[in-house]
Amino acid sequence: MKNIIITGGAGFIGSHVVRRFVNRYTDYHIINLDNLTYAGNLENLRDIEGCSNYEFVKCDITDTKAVESLFSSKEIHSVIHLAAESHVDRSITNPIDFVMTNVVGTVVLLNAFKSFGNVTQGRFYHVSTDEVYGTLGDEGKFTESTPYDPNSPYSASKASSDHFVRAYHETFKMPIVISNCSNNYGSHQFPEKLIPLMIHNIKNNKPLPVYGKGENIRDWLWVNDHASAIDVIFHKGKNGNTYNIGGNNEWKNIDLVNKLCEIMDRKLGRNNGESAKLITYVTDRAGHDFRYAIDASKLELELGWSPSVAFDQGFEKTIDWYLENNEWLDNVTSGNYQAYYQNMYTNR
Ligand code: NAD
Ligand code: DAU
């Protein structure tokens, strides 16, 4: 039995990765290491919590003692590291939290893996973002050799953690792999991010806050396809390599919000055009990157990965999930979320 630590497994992408690994690899013992911040939610994993090859450990990755105690108490084969502060807007309000978790927390994990992990047969997999490459104009795509040029405190912290991971490979010969993925959509995403926030507001007839003119472009990938890419890279990726992951699926924000409104009108039995009346243009995000687009050909050609669903199909499934899981959405939008929302959007 190989002990695999997946950090951030109670979050949006992490829960999909944990579920996939627990269900597919019964010879792995999956340890979900997560501190359960506002973004971590064990409800995301109710269906697999009783599985014998799954364990949850509540732990802050910046707590060196706690992390080392876990790593020294079990033979850790590999780490798949997703735990992070992940929201760009929060990084603008509170950059220090991003330095602590994303930079310091990653180095704490690297040190623990170096001291106690299986550095001959296992590996340290760092899950990262395309935002480290900065912003694109109308043309071109990010490749693995695009120079790092992060613009937000979030992307600066992720770029820094990528550099540390690569430095541990060069300096200590640690077996590592890094992936940089585009925007994910799917079930269980915390409604601070564009798509679930808009779904929640449409349901509740609240304004739909589109930043700036809504012309920024993002490249959207279904979260389950990100999880399948992580699976492929974890098992087949070459040590010391980076792989870009993306869905070849660019959308201007305003076009995506309009499409969402049309689908929601149909699903909620509203007149066509009713939800779109809620669209409200608000003050832009500071330093808002204009466009992200991923060239995932290395991953496709070398490791044989490709996305499994077309966007229309994945988007419908996603919307259906939020409409069918009212309780989940109500729980995560009560309490602190209300204060967050007011601070971020009132009089914006
Ligand atoms: P998320 O915010 O939904 O989840 C983050 C998880 O990390 C939560 O479960 C949280 O409790 C946990 N966590 C935070 N701080 C912690 C700490 N100090 N100790 C232990 N656990 C902690 O994030 P997500 O959107 O699922 O993103 C997961 C990873 O994927 C991140 O590293 C992010 O940078 C990367 N990524 C995200 C996207 C995207 O579109 N969401 C795209 C590319 C890459
Ligand atoms: O590209 C990968 C990144 O995608 C990940 O690394 C991040 O963790 C993830 O949060 C995401 O970052 P973005 O900033 O692109 O995602 P967000 O959902 O916050 O915003 C998507 C776009 O929508 C962006 O151009 C800003 C805009 N937006 C967002 C919100 C929350 C709005 O117009 N209104 C909003 O209320």
Structure report:
By secondary structure, the protein is an alpha/beta fold. The protein contains twelve helices and twelve strands. The chain has a single domain, classed as Rossmann fold, CATH 3.40.50. It has helices at about 10-25, 65-75, 90-95, 95-115, 155-170, 195-205, 225-235, 255-270, 295-305, 310-325, 325-330, 335-345, and strands at about 1-5, 30-35, 55-60, 75-80, 125-130, 175-180, 185, 210, 215-220, 240-245, 250, 280. The strands form three sheets. It has a seven-stranded parallel β-sheet, sandwiched between helices. It has a three-stranded mixed β-sheet with strand order 7-9-11. α5 (about 155-170) links the parallel β5 and β6 (about 175-180). The relative contact order is 0.13. Nicotinamide-adenine-dinucleotide binds near residues 13, 14, 82, 83 and 101.
Structural descriptors:
Rossmann fold, single chain, 348 residues, three-stranded mixed sheet, binds 2'deoxy-thymidine-5'-diphospho-alpha-D-glucose, binds nicotinamide-adenine-dinucleotide, 12 strands, globular, alpha/beta
Strand element count: 12
Reported for the largest beta sheet, the result is:
7 strands, parallel
Per CATH, the superfamily is: NAD(P)-binding Rossmann-like Domain
The CATH architecture assignment turns out to be: 3-Layer(aba) Sandwich
Q: Name the average pLDDT.
A: 98
> Based on helices, strands and strand pairing, what is the structural class?
alpha/beta
Low-confidence stretches: none
What does the radius of gyration come to? 20 Å
Ligands bound, unique: nicotinamide-adenine-dinucleotide, 2'deoxy-thymidine-5'-diphospho-alpha-D-glucose
Distance between the termini: 52 Å
Order of helices and strands: EHEEHEHHEHEEHEEHEEHEHHHH
